[in-house]
Amino acid sequence: MDIRRSQLVFFLLLQTVSLTALAEPGRFGGFFSFGKSKAPEHREEQVQRAADKKMEKEALVEQRNEAKRQAAPAGPSNGGGEATQKRSRMTPDERRALRRQINDAGHDIYVPGR
Question: How many Cα atoms sit within 13 Å of 56 on the Cβ side?
Fold first, then answer.
């Protein structure tokens, strides 16, 4: 009786593993796949999409750089950097106002408990 149960469990386990391998042909390197493998076609599409994304990103970066160049002040090169550096820091009043805006936005999103 125990041997029969062990054989049944083994058979069910073997069948489960085999069906999983057949259901997911790409997972096992195409060993269990039937017919022509479509992996190279998909790979070419992925490479093309990645190249397109990279070109779009480079174009966007170039547009941003061009906009920065146009918006940059036409002063001396050493004086312009200091003004930009000083402008990047916020005053205490600006920080308080920003904290208040963030807090108000948080209350709008997350309504306090009643």
Answer: 6
